[in-house]
């Protein structure tokens, strides 16, 4: 995606996109966009538009890579419209809010979201319609495609190349399902065995950042070698090279399989690296185990939600061996809380302002995680945090998406447990006698 501010842009079909990009009939407002080359994918697929026409305001347009994706996107929009139209009856006319991807309250400001809340017509407009506009010199119709609001490409999803790629077992099944993958897997196993048997995890005198980056580089080379072999040896995967979403799925499947194979060595090194911090955290959490949830910032109305299914889900984190599965465990943990809150919200009949206050915010999510850590009695939390932060999506240097949000929340909880505020809470919970001045922990009595 390219953010174009308030510029008008034109989107055309693949067969004539290169030619049309140079036509002088296009308004000067399009110059910025048209000077930029189209992605290679646009030349090899049937580019299709989804047109959203609200009763008020300008139309919104979404670009899909083919007719199938466009139909899927249209269905998604219509479902969102139906859901929002039902909830809008409970909302005040002057205040509009929506739930974000993690259940957090956010104000509705997007033009696309506003169109969801209004009555609108949704059409799928293919290349033929665009060609007709061109042949009729309908530059006004073409210029109506407005990209003043950046549309998230994640809204358009291709069918997954394999089910259950969010588990180690699913990724393994995908890689072993085709005989064309045998050569690549054998080569990857040799590299993994060499890493496990010969690779030195680094002198402890080296900085943690240097050691982690060295491990990441080695893992990245093994994963890339496996991905390249799959694309070379399996003809059915060639089409994935022009589909970014499918390429990400292939990479993630290989990444998950590799880390499932080297977990003991990598995680063992992370445990050694964070041993001191983990010991201090275990001691802190032991003193917070009996603390009232409200002292940790958890609101009374949320206590039962956090200490129910969410606590059970969180306790499973050490049963998983890959960064992906551990991060998904965090997401499921928080989702257990949010789903329980959503149930209460659905049955709520009070004032709108009170319902808005019931919805959790980011501070609540941090408090939820601290309380879960205090009650779950899980070891090596710092090692788990380092493992997920440094080895999930190692081919991406930027954001890790929704899973990255949950990892960040987990890291924030770990840091908060080392803060002065937590030490003050513990000092208030412990008996006053037997304290050493300046210390928040009591000195045990000797009998």
From TrEMBL:
InterPro entries under this entry?
UPF0507/Ank_repeat_27 (IPR051248), VPS9 (IPR003123), VPS9_dom_sf (IPR037191)
Q: Name a single GO cellular component.
A: early endosome
Please list where the region (Disordered) is annotated. 84-105
Gene3D superfamilies this protein is in?
VPS9 domain
Any Pfam family the entry gives: VPS9
The record places domain VPS9 at 275-426
Q: Which GO terms describe its biological process?
A: early endosome to late endosome transport
Q: Name one GO molecular function term.
A: SNARE binding
- What PROSITE patterns does this protein map onto? VPS9 (PS51205)
UniProt protein name: VPS9 domain-containing protein
**Originating organism:** Taxus chinensis (Chinese yew)
């Amino acid at each position: 995606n390219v953010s174009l501010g308030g510029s008008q842009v034109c989107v055309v079909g693949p067969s004539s996109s290169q030619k049309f990009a140079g036509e002088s009939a296009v308004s000067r407002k399009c110059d910025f966009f048209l000077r930029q080359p189209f992605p290679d994918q646009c030349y090899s697929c049937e580019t299709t538009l989804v047109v959203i026409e609200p009763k008020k305001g300008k139309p919104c347009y979404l670009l899909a890579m083919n007719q199938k994706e466009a139909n899927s996107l249209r269905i998604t929009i219509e479902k969102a419209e139906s859901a929002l139209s039902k909830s809008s009856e409970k909302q005040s006319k002057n205040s509009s809010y929506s739930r974000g991807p993690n259940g957090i309250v956010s104000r509705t400001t997007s033009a696309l979201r506003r169109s969801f809340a209004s009555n609108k017509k949704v059409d799928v407009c293919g290349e033929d319609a665009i060609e007709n506009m061109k042949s009729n010199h309908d530059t006004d119709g073409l210029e109506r495609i407005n990209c003043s609001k950046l549309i998230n490409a994640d809204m358009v999803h291709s069918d997954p190349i394999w089910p259950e790629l969010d588990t180690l077992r699913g990724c393994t099944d995908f890689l072993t399902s085709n005989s064309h993958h045998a050569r690549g897997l054998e080569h990857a196993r040799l590299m993994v065995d060499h890493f496990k048997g010969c690779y030195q995890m680094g002198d402890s005198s080296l900085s943690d950042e240097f050691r982690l980056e060295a491990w990441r580089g080695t893992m990245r080379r093994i994963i890339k070698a496996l991905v390249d072999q799959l694309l070379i040896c399996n003809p059915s995967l060639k089409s994935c090279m022009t589909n970014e979403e499918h390429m990400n799925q292939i990479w993630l499947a290989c990444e998950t399989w590799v880390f499932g194979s080297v977990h003991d060595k990598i995680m063992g090194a992370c445990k050694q690296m964070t041993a001191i911090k983990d010991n201090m955290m275990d001691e802190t959490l032991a003193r917070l185990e009996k603390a009232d949830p409200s002292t940790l910032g958890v609101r009374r109305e949320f206590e039962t939600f956090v200490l129910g299914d969410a606590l059970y889900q969180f306790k499973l984190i050490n049963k998983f061996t890959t960064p992906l599965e551990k991060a998904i465990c965090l997401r499921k943990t928080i989702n257990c809380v949010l789903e329980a809150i959503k149930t209460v919200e659905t049955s709520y009949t009070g004032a709108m302002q009170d319902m808005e206050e019931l919805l959790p915010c980011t501070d609540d999510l941090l408090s939820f995680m601290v309380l879960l850590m205090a009650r779950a009695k899980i070891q090596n939390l710092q090692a788990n945090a380092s493992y997920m932060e440094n080895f999930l999506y190692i081919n991406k240097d930027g954001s890790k998406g929704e899973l990255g949000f949950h990892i960040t929340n987990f890291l924030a909880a770990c840091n908060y447990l080392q803060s002065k505020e937590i030490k003050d809470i513990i000092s208030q919970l412990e008996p006053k006698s037997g304290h050493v001045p300046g210390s928040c922990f009591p000195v045990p009595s000797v009998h």
